[in-house]
Amino acid sequence: MSVISPARALPAEIHLHQLPEHIHTQFDQLMDRADQHAERHELSASALLHTQAAQLIGIRLPDSGELTRCTCQGCYCTCAFDAAQARTYLDGTIEFVQCPGCADDHPRTEDD
Ligand SMILES: [Zn+2]
Ligand SMILES: [Zn+2]
Questions:
Q1: Centre of ligand 1 from the C-alpha of residue 81, in Å
Q2: What is the rounded CA–CA span in Å between residue 28 and residue 54?
Q3: Cα-based torsion angle of the residue sequence 85, 16, 104, 36 in order, rounded to the nearest 10 degrees
Q4: Residue 2 counted as domain residue
Q5: How far apart are CA 81 and CA 99, in angstroms?
Q6: Is 59 part of a structural domain of the chain?
Q7: Ligand with an atom nearest the CA of residue 15
Q8: What is the distance in A from the centroid of ligand 1 to the CA of 9?
Q9: Of 12, 54, 95, 103, which is most buried with the most CB atoms under 10 A?
Q10: Which ligand is nearest to the CA of 97?
Q11: In terms of residue numbers, what domain contains 53?
Q12: Residue 49 maps to a domain
């Protein structure tokens, strides 16, 4: 926990439910478009959308350049965070993402 908070320091993650609904919606749209570009291997277009998404919700772009959303089934976490920190697990054939907080607090594994 840092107590140093220069005016321009942005958080590394945010919980989307703290944001106004329309920002949350715009963020989801940007991330969905970024995913579509990534699937087509249009990586610069995808990277640009991740940058826009980070600016929209007021967090800094992680070193990995990619954000992801926590889709943990164990709680109602709506964390947006660095994709490099994501833990994924499968439920059936569907892949879900846990943020570091969820992975520490109530980890899901494919062995469960
Ligand atoms: Zn989470
Ligand atoms: Zn969770």
A1: 9
A2: 11
A3: -40
A4: no
A5: 7
A6: yes
A7: 1
A8: 22
A9: 54
A10: 1
A11: 14-105
A12: yes
Strands 14-15 and 67-69: unpaired
> In this structure, is residue 111 part of a structural domain?
no
Rounded to the nearest whole angstrom, what is the distance from the C-alpha of residue 44 to the centroid of ligand 2? 31
Q: Which residue has the tokens 């007021």?
A: 58
Taken in order 67, 65, 1, 9, the sign of the CA dihedral is: negative
Tell the residue number behind the tokens 């919606």, with chain if given.
25
pTM metric for this prediction: 0.85
Q: What are 42-85's pLDDT values in tens digits?
A: 999 999 999 999 999 999 999 999 999 999 999 999 999 999 99
Cα–Cα distance for residue pair 107/112, rounded to 1 Å? 10
Longest Cα pair distance anywhere in the chain, in angstroms?
45
Report strand pairing: 94-98 vs 87-91: antiparallel
Tokens 């963020």 map to which residue?
Answer: 27
Q: Domains in the chain: how many in total?
A: 1
